Recover the amino acids of this structure.
């Protein structure tokens, strides 16, 4: 998606350790006009799918998923990173490793909000090793829901997550795929 | 706001320990059409304010803030609950106590995204003791930003947060204020 790639070039910064900082528009301060254009792109790309639920994981995916939910006219569900006192009853729980936070956390989704009647679009801001996404897919499939696809804002194409999911047959629609980036020069190469 | 009160009566559940579960539409699974109506209400209520930034705190506030940002045509900023490797440089940091999670966490906002040029609407799903909100106000004021108001979906009117902020002169616009609720009968009394 041209608009997103241009924004990454303009406002993103490449840091050591394969970190792409896009906190001015994507995952700390967030540009809702951009998110709306991203959501419309996914809406067009998945026009053939009966998507009736948007699933993401806290925290950075939530705002994108919210706008996607508005555009798809579908409820949004986010996997929570720890058991809160406000969640009782039965939950699906998976362990997810975070590239950003260098840790592993349990994420949960209430069983009552996902089931065989759901055709799910999974949405997140980044994909690196794909662990968060694999966890969300596992929850969907355990629940008997159908994973229609995965919408990612920025995929790090030099890390294995996206291509591994594609190899398994999942439809991964990343709006910008970074094939390489150089912290010395700041150069970013997008997959065409 | 009638629509929200009706939804709380229909789908909310009163639990022991002053817990109001609204996870089917507000803070786990989320109804974006409802959020849009909430955002429009705040837009009307704050029509006289030069709001140019929406501030919330992860995680439950983010989806509401996203839709509010869309309706106000303003960027959304969310305070993060811990220092991630993706945030470097200078941040504002406050300690916030969570009623829901019964713990205290540090929340941070990058200094570069808030300053004297910002007229801020703070948004969150719940207000109980108001600690999260007080923390966000403290960040705004330290940054020299103007707090135009606070938009809360559900205020627990029997807990002191909302009225304490009003007493200090802040404009707190809660769309539903629960003055009492009974876990035995499920009865919920809203402030009129």
């Amino acid at each position: 998606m041209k608009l997103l790639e241009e924004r990454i070039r303009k406002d993103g910064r490449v840091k050591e350790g394969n970190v792409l900082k896009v906190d001015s528009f994507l995952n700390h301060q967030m540009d809702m006009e951009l998110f709306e254009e991203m959501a419309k792109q996914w809406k067009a790309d998945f026009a053939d799918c009966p998507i009736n639920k948007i699933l993401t994981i806290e925290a950075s995916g939530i705002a994108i998923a919210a706008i996607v939910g508005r555009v798809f006219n579908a409820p949004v569900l986010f996997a929570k990173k720890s058991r809160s006192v406000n969640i009782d009853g039965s939950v699906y729980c998976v362990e997810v490793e975070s590239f950003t936070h260098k840790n592993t956390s349990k994420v949960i989704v209430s069983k009552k909000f996902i089931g065989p009647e759901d055709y799910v679009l999974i949405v997140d801001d980044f994909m690196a090793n794909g662990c968060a996404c694999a966890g969300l897919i596992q929850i969907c499939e355990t629940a008997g829901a159908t994973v229609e696809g995965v919408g990612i804002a920025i995929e790090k194409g030099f890390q294995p997550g996206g291509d591994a999911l594609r190899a398994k047959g999942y439809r991964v629609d990343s709006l910008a795929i970074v094939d390489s980036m150089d912290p010395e020069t700041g150069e970013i190469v997008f997959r065409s």
